[in-house]
Every structure is written in C-alpha cells, then in structure tokens.
Task: structure prediction
Amino acid sequence: MKEHARRAIAECRRIATMSEEPGCITRRFLTPPMREVHDHLRRRMEAMGMTVRWDAAGNLRGIWQPENAHGKRLIVGSHIDTVPDAGAFDGVLGVTLALECVELARELGMPLPIEIIAFSEEEGVRFGVPFIGSRAVAGRFDPGLLVLRDAKGITLEAAIRNYALDPARIHEAAIGDDVAGMLEMHIEQGPVLESENLSVAAVDAIAGQTRYTVEFLGQANHAGTTPMHLRHDALTGAAEWIAAVEGLALRTEALAATVGSARVEPNAGNVIPGAALLSLDVRHVRDAVREQAVEALLKQADAIAAQRGLSVHCTRHMNQRAVPMDERLTAFLMEAMEAANLPPKRMTSGAGHDAMVMAARVPTAMLFLRSPGGISHHPAESVREEDVEAALEVGRKFLERLAAEVR
Ligand SMILES: [Zn+2]
Result:
C-alpha cells in the first residue's frame, strides 16, 4: 500500500505545479492550468484502461469497467479547483486517491465498475457560487447561473464555451439510476483528527449553515466632548454582542458561531463609532440547534441595542440545512476502518463538500484524512504518508464490501 500512497501524494505535488501563478497554487474553474490537469489525468486514466470524457460543466470523468463487471458503478472523486494561494491536497488528494482505488480494484480483480470524477468547481472562487461541477452531476444545475460574471466580466456561459464545451448540454452531465453511490475522500481541513491522533474518520453529516450581516447603528460624535453616559456607541454594542456569540457557542455542544468580519464607521480614532457592520456564521449538524441559536443571537442583538440606545438591522444571506451522509455506506466505512485495524471514528464536517451536493442524488459517504497542524487553504497544507496509506486501506475494504454487495 506504501507505493500507492506515495504515488497519490506525488501526483498531488505534480498537479500543484499546474497553476495560474508561478510559485503558488491557484487554479480556478476552467482556467488554462485546469486544462493541464485534465490532460495529465486523462493520460493516466487512459493508460489504466479507463474511458475518459469531459461533461459540459468541465468535470473530467473516467470510467473503469472491468471485464467481470456487474451491477451499478461507484463514483469516487473530489474537486481539482483551488482557492487562491492554496495547498496541494484540498480536493486533489481525493482524485489521486480515486486513481489508486481503481489501481487496487484492477489488481484485485474486483467486479466493481468505478467512475472517477474530478469535479471542476467546488470552491466558488471564480463566479462566487460553489459546487458548479457537482451540481451538474447531481442534476441540480440551475441554468440561471450561466449569466454570472467573473472578475474580468466573462460570463459562466462564455467560460464554458471558451473551454470548447457546450453550456446547452450541461443537463447531460447528470447521472442516471445506474450509480450505486459515491465516495469522497478529503483532508479534514481542521484540527480534530490530529488532536485525537487518528489517521482517518468517516463523516456522518455535513453541518448546516446560516449567515447574516448584523448592523448596529448609533450616533457618531466627538470622542472628547461627548460624556460616556450620553453616547450611543455602535461598536461597544457590537463588541458586547460578539462576546455573546462566542459565549453561546461555548455553552452549546458542537455549535460553531463566528463573527469573522467587522466594519466600523466612520472608523476614526477620535470619533465615537456611529455604525458597526458585522458578519455572523452559525453552523451545527442539527438544524434545530442551529436555528434556535440564530434566533437567540438575533434577540440578544435587539436587547443589547435597546439597552444602549442603538438600533440593529439583521439581513440573512444563507440558510443551508445539514446534510447527512448515507447510513449504509458510512457503516461500510466504519467496518472498513475496523478491518484495517484503525479506530472506527465518526465525525461531522463543518465545511461544505461536493459530497453534500451529491448526497441529494445518490447514497454518499465521505472519508476524512488528518490535516497536519489543522492547516488548509494555505500553502503549508500537508498530509502524512501513513494517513494516506490508512485511507487507501479503508478505501480498498470499502470497495470490496460494495463489490460483495452487488454480486
Ligand atoms: Zn475541498
């Protein structure tokens, strides 16, 4: 398994050189370096005896159809686009591991047909909308998105055409009823597995997410002449609320609540702040817990504002339900971990993934690999060879279990 793990890592390092900017990894949806990755992966898949095609959403798709194949195929994959100045493993490792899964299936003569999908767009960097690739495969692509424009004013429709693909055929990317399920392997992008000294975990659900902007409005005034008891300081109200956000999250099991952005007006050292514009991001794997937390925090903002003579305006931007992974396939992953002598660990994902979109269409399972230092979306992102080996052991046993099932 060591050789397979080493090759999966080496492939990530090689793909990392295919970038929009020399010296760092940036590979947005349908940019020239994505073509390079496509050509590289296509050559490898064809050499392995796979049939390769592109769909109109720019997903690269390779089918491994063994001679003894029977039953529906398993999709294994992840995304190959990146954030700006990214690491080498987010998404890409899930594709290079998928290649090794096919190598293993071939070596072991498994009768399981496998489709590898290198999803074209997950991060949402170029057009501000994530999961364009997996939406198309899941049959949930909204053609209204084609008018979106990137920073250069190029529409999504034009970007697809410029890549020699036909946007009118995106619906053909959708899978039919001949798919048994999907497995996505992905780095955790957080510190949990490292803190528990574990190589891998099955993801049992992807957290739901609510985002708001919360605006505290007071009265800007002179910092020297306005006595403390006559002020309506928007920023002190905002600060009190930020501490309340953290307090609620600390008191609520597994709740993540973040104020990640703050803008102060007029933002001058000698002026009492008249306005403070904050972001709020709340995530939990149980929708009811998330919804109650959001409601409590908005009420608290009202209460703080009333007490300080401020007004507050809250605008919702996102309200996304939690997505459970498939119970049966997740159980296969747990069995596979035990069979590989690894502690069977389940955890939730606080971040969105292609698996979340695919789960609406086919039974989907997800395996996390430890992220050393918990670091991701950063050039220092890395992976340990032993963890990649562990993921491949689990992947092999998962494939064997599935192959036995469809027999
Ligand atoms: Zn990712």
Remarks:
- The domain at 208-320 is CATH 3.30.70.360 (Alpha-Beta Plaits).
- The two ends are 25 Å apart (CA to CA).
- The chain is about 35% helix and 20% strand.
- The pocket of zinc ion is lined by residues 79, 90-91, 122, 186 (CB under 6 Å).
